[in-house]
Amino acid sequence: MKRIVVAPNSTFKGEAPNLDQFFAPERGTVVKPGIPYFKVVSITPALAMSLLKRMPKKSNRKLKRYRVNKYAVEMREGQFLLAQPILFDWNREPIDGQHRLLGVVLSGRAITMAVGYNYDPKIKPVIDKGAGRSNGDVARISLGVTSQEAKKASAVGAIESLFSKQRQISALEFVELYTAAEKEIEWVFSVLPNNKIGHTQVRAALAVAYKTKKDQEKVAEFARLLKENDGLRPGNPVHTLRRYLLESGEYERDQRNGDDMRDFGYKVLRSVYAFVNDHPMHRLFGGTSDPKSQQAMDYFAKAWEDIIIQQSPTQQANAVLPDSPEADAYIDDFIDKHGA
Which helix (H) or strand (E) element contains residue 47? Predict the structure, then answer.
């Protein structure tokens, strides 16, 4: 894991914060029972730690270290963007925002955030249950694409899922990846417009493979044959993938048995890799746990290193984190106590 040294003026603990001042409403705010009020506050690592002490052990969602790391990286690099405020109930207990507070601790930076106070504790189960923005929504809002073009946004999340099994990517990460992969996405939608063959994960795997320049002609030929079924014989990896998708019933069986889309994407990549290297393939074995599928993924991933691994903070193992063993130990201990 790459690390950078915390700046001298960024302290892990700092001065003891005044919590009464933090929870006090701004002058002129009339506080009524059960009616939330808001402030914009600079959250220091010391203040974040004091607020986290107020978090009940089992009342919030499970904590995820990769999300804490992601926020810490964004905070260090000045890229942290989030419209949603941190929320506290009328007992002054945090009910939403623990990952962001832990991110502040790990980043060593003071971060300005919106904070909501005086919420009814009963809202905890319904937080984040509203209609979230899909990748297509983000594409329309952030990139100005049309509704028709926004359909291509599904491929972006599928591409990311091949590199990381963690979760849905943030809006910022989505925009970065969509922009970097636009050429490959445009290509794959032009050659596989049909949804039966052009399954989202098939398109994503082909887009990943197509970025390897020396193999583009072979990958393009694979996609053409997959669409046209032109003179394919048993043992050809394209024939094997077509049969898996359309004829054998194996795809439907694997879905019923719990295969996830990431496993399916790895199978597609293994078939593309076999075709590129002129290897026969009579059955679509594979998945994330299969060594040959992983070999195929590693091979095609090389063309994406600067995009996925170095630029995107979703890759925890390559994240640029502050060099603060004390903060690291605090985060690990906190997650241990509150459930990972």
Answer: helix 45-52
